[in-house]
Amino acid sequence: MKIEGRVWKFGDNIDTDVIIPAPYLVTTDVEELGKHCMEGVDAEFTEKVRPGDIIVAGKNFGCGSSREHAPMSIKGAGISCVIAEGFARIFFRNAFNMGLAIFESPGVFQGIEEGDRISVNQDTGEIMDHTNGKRFSASPIPSFMQELIKAGGLMSYILNKRRA
């Protein structure tokens, strides 16, 4: 499967407190969380982002508190995936559990600019910057994890399996 979108860039050590600030943790409504995504870094982010856009970040994206609300808010904002130099371990797992596609790709932060149009192939991990012609590699998403994403997350995946 191929994901395509416009890039929004964030640097190193973007923690869960700035992805979704603590006052919004009182809800699990994905749409409501999406209205406040990245508010701690860019208060106008959700006014600018469009469905299908992609976040490109530096090292240690999603560090800090273990909150499922962070990947939920990213999905709620309409972001199709996050590509980073590296992810905090708990965010990595929470992202897949919540059905958010993420990719680790060394060198991506330096090579892609905000506003570039890129595509990511989930099966191969190939990242193509259609604006500047550069290519990057990420680990492909294993088929089981792709199933979690397609289902909308771990809980939906389990419920669908029980119904089948």
CATH fold annotation: Aconitase, domain 4
- Biggest beta-sheet profile: 7 strands, mixed
Strand content: 15-25%
Instruction: Kindly provide the radius of gyration, computed on alpha-carbon positions and rounded to a whole number of angstroms.
Output: 15 Å
How many independent structural domains?
1
**For the terminal residues, how far apart are their CA atoms?**
24 Å
Q: Give the H and E element order.
A: EHHHEHEHEHEEEHH
Per CATH, the class reads Alpha Beta
The CATH architecture is: Alpha-Beta Barrel
Tell me the quaternary state. Answer: single chain
How many E-type strands?
A: 7
Briefly note the structural class of the backbone: alpha/beta
State the helix count: 8
Helical content stands at: 25-40%
Characterise the protein shown here.
This protein has 164 residues and is of the alpha/beta class. The chain has a single domain (2-163), classed as Alpha-Beta Barrel (Aconitase, domain 4), CATH 3.20.19. It is 32% helix and 20% strand. It contains 8 helices and 7 strands; from the N terminus they run E-H-H-H-E-H-E-H-E-H-E-E-E-H-H. A 7-stranded mixed sheet has the order 4-3-2-1-5-6-7, with helices on one face. Helix 4 (69-76) links the parallel strand 2 (54-57) and strand 3 (81-84). The longest helix is centred in the C-terminal third of the chain and has 10 residues, at 154-163. The model has no long low-confidence stretch (mean pLDDT 95).
